[in-house]
Amino acid sequence: LAGTAGSSGSADGTGTAATFNQPYDGTVDNGNLYVTDFGNHLIRKIVISSGVVTTLAGTGSSGSADGTGTAASFYSPGGITSDGTNLFVAGINNHIIRKIVISSGVVTTFAGTGSTGSSDGTGTAASFNFPFGITNDGTNLFVVDASNHLIRKIVISSGVVTTFAGTGSRGSADGTGTAASFNYPQGITNDGTNLFVADVGNHLIRKIVISSGVVTTIAGTGSAGNADGTGTAASFNAPPGITNDGTNLFVADRANKIIRKIVISSGVVTTFAGTGSAGSADGTGTAASFNYPQSITHDGTSLFVMDLSNHTIRKID
Hints:
With 317 residues, the protein is mainly β. The protein has strands at 13-14, 23-29, 32-37, 42-47, 52-57, 67-68, 77-82, 86-91, 96-101, 106-111, 121-122, 131-136, 140-145, 150-155, 160-165, 175-176, 185-190, 194-199, 204-209, 214-219, 229-230, 241-244, 248-253, 258-263, 268-273, 293-298, 303-307, 312-316. 47% of the residues are buried.
């Protein structure tokens, strides 16, 4: 869809004439795909129908300055989500959550002190430790606080940050809320009822019931591998990206260089796209190739993959 395969850069343009530097995550809103351009410290906008790429926010140099559009700065932006009015961005190396008003491009710091920590609190009184992934259910943001091994919750209306799940220590225990444990989780998605977390260090896909905080393992053996199968008989290799269409989960299985599909109702895991070898070939399903796919999102019709080491955005119909 966009980006010059194998070449990094920061040029705006149409489709493959535009360049990115390690595109990290994306979210779709009103026909546009918004991408966190990790290596360029930018937020990019892609009009899906035309492939036109522009820079929405960021100076292109690392920083944490609030401001409007290209006057604001980011430092290795990671996860991104939209509530229809605003974008929320996980600032990985700033340890903060940023808010961007879509209509104006105004960037503010929504939560986080800017220093590592795990304190709950309101807005900039709370602290994070390398927040990677982010999703929202319209009322709350849910943040994957990777180096704290936690899932944090932020009430959008008030900015109140609480710890939703995780002990704060590395582990793979199922349980309720802070009795469960994770190991460097990165990606997160929700279907309105459940959160689904890509638990990278455990090579697992975890499920959290939003109403109760109950955490279970829905897929993965817990060891690195590349086996299709059902539930905990299937294996992944450091999967950081995840999205859902209400029926299926789609996982960016980064180290395997493939996209996996999980039927939510049954837990059946199959390989959806990718040869399993590094490449940038377009094609159908397992005839196409990726180079460390980092994350994945969808617009109800197509999937969009942030193909990190190819510096491209790929589309799967």
